[in-house]
Amino acid sequence: MPVDTPLQSLPEPPPVSAAMARAHRAYWRFNVVLIAVLMAIGFSVSFGLPLMASRFEDVRVAGFPLPFYFGAQGAILVYVALIVIYIVLMQFADARLLRAADATEAGDR
Fold it and tell me: Which segments constitute the Sodium symporter small subunit domain (predicted)?
């Protein structure tokens, strides 16, 4: 037989200023757009480049056809570059959000 216990109410989150709410929206909008762009680049490298590889079979690099380098090294290097780009750009976005939070906090004093 279940015992009726009152639900514990969750504490209310602290109030957020309108400027901070705008900063959060801009932060997440930037994050989502950045992820979409980087995923589109990754998709084109994964699927677009192999579809076009037959056009580059005559191009030789160190005796090997260029599509070999696309598949063997190029895609991996692009994926690593996409990760590095995401990290660097999100650090800038984090710093911008922190500056907005500091400015909001300084304005509240």
Answer: 24-96
Query: Please, which residues have CB within 8 angstroms of residue 20's CB and are 6 or more apart in sequence?
Result: 100, 101, 104
Q: What is the mean pLDDT of residues 32-52?
A: 90
Q: What is the pLDDT of residues 53-88, one digit of tens each?
A: 788 788 887 787 877 777 777 788 889 999 999 999
In sequence order, which residues have a C-beta less than 8 Å from that of residue 40 and are 6 or more positions away? none
Task: Classify residue 53 by its DSSP letter.
Answer: G
Q: CB burial class (10 A; 0-12, 13-18, 19+) of residue 41?
A: middle
d(CA 91, CA 100): 14
Do residues 7 and 88 make contact, with C-beta atoms less than 8 angstroms apart?
no
Token pair recorded at residue 39: 């995923």
